[in-house]
Amino acid sequence: MWVNLAMSYYLRMLLSMAVLLVAATYSFGQKSEINVTAYSGLSFFRGSGSATTSWMGSGYNGSSTLNPHSKKPSFFCSFELSGQRVTKNNHLYGIGLAFEALKSTIDIDSAVENAFFYYKYDATGKSTLKNSFITVSPYIGHRLTAGKVLIDLTGGLDLAFSFKGHITGEAVSVDKNYDMSVDYKTKAVVDIRPRLQAKIQYKKAGLLLGYSLGLTEYKNERKTNSYSNIIRLGLSYQLM
Predict the structure, then answer these.
(1) Residue 79 — φ and ψ, nearest 5°?
(2) Measured CA angle at 63 (ends 62, 64), to 5 deg
(3) With contact defined as beta carbons under 8 Å apart, do 230 and 33 qualify?
(4) How do the pLDDT tens digits run along the chain, 240 residues long?
(5) CA 6, CA 4: separation in Å to the nearest integer?
(6) Integer Cα distance of 209 and 198 in angstroms
(7) Is the four-CA dihedral 193, 196, 202, 203 of positive or negative sign?
């Protein structure tokens, strides 16, 4: 209960800070910019706890996937509102506020039943972890110009607050089908990710390429660690 209350408080505080910072950025005048960006790309995990295959189990505590943290890249989507200030020397700083829906899909190679007795069967299938985040991303960088083309090179930090997780899965063994749909809970409430990004803009439209390297540990049932990785490709539009 106290964790949920604290999480709700900090989310409201960070959202308020992001709105105020975006508003403050715009108030500076001619060299302030507001952008909206739609991202897609690939998300996956690295580390000793990540894998390409796992097993799906059922027992007294319901169904589960032993390890939902896949090394295999999965497509994701994200939407971001950002504000930034460009100085006379073409230095820039800003902050983004985003909704992220990240996915991790792992192959199922066996099924386990653990009730009165323990049985393990060969199986084929897939399990998908879906994590939703509200992400605050402060950053700094530098702007290059090539005629009418603007090139922004930035580095910053993603503070991604997880508010929903869900795992679905299907597997087939010799004589049985397995299905699961369960909520996913992790102690990694905040995923901290250093982020590098490049943006090419012509007039008001831009193309972005970025990479985020997760530093926060995700633990599976075997207590081994995984870390998030995100490759982004985005399309942006300058509102102001």
Answers:
(1) -130, 135
(2) 125
(3) no
(4) 433 444 454 556 555 555 555 554 444 445 899 999 999 999 999 998 899 998 887 654 556 788 889 999 999 999 999 999 999 899 999 999 999 999 999 999 888 876 556 677 788 889 999 999 999 999 999 999 999 999 999 999 999 999 999 998 888 887 778 788 888 877 678 999 999 999 999 999 999 999 999 999 987 666 678 999 999 999 999 998
(5) 5
(6) 5
(7) positive
Domains of the chain listed by start with CATH number: 2-50+73-105+129-238 (2.40.160.20)
pTM here is: 0.81
Contact criterion met (CB below 8 Å) for 98 and 80: yes
Would you give the DSSP letter of residue 70?
B
> Can you tell me whether residue 27 is helix, strand or coil?
helix
